[in-house]
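We emphasize that the prediction below concerns an isolated chain of 224 residues; any contacts that depend on oligomerization or on bound cofactors are therefore not represented. The input was used exactly as deposited, without trimming of termini.
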Amino acid sequence: MQVSLIRYTPEPELTVASAARLCYSQISATQLQEKLTPTQVESLLRRVISSGHHSVLEHASFTFAIDGISRACSHQLVRHRLASYSQQSQRYVSYKAPDFVTPPSVADDPELSRQFEQAVLAAFAQYRGLVEAGVPVEDARYLLPNATTTRLVMTMNARELMHTCSIRLCVRAQWEIREIFEAIKEEVKKVAPIIGGALQIKCIIHDYCDETESCGIRPLKDES
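Result of the prediction step, given as a token string:
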């Protein structure tokens, strides 16, 4: 798996701070950007994040290239609808060689790993056989397993990133999508450290767990 931040709003934290200050200012956002100091930007951002007034965070967006994740994982990812996605098409891309993700629970057992790989390679061989026999790629792809890797580009604004990370960084999220958002958090921190630092699991944000059973990081709401 590889996650790379390929585009983002220029000076994302200054953009968000300017938008936040504009709501209570008589001058334009352009003038505010020229006047705000780094210290003021940090103060404004921390106030916005802690107060829950997150709408201004939508002015900063981040675009990621995500490569080498499974189709099983990408189907979870695109459930987050307040984002834009462009994904490698199995309808138009003909796979020449098998490339797939093996879950750790399988990879840790040599015999299960062997069986898993054998099954995936058999499915891929049948896929190639259909393609070479003249079956359209869009029909042959029905044989490809969920383990098959994919590539996609995803764009999210900072507010949606905060929401999605609050769910997908949780230990209850599946391991693969959790790895994606751990990598996303590190990428965002490089260009927007305050926003990146705010990408936290929900129990850290609320100081309690709202699941039916706590993993131990924070107590359940009724116990806090």
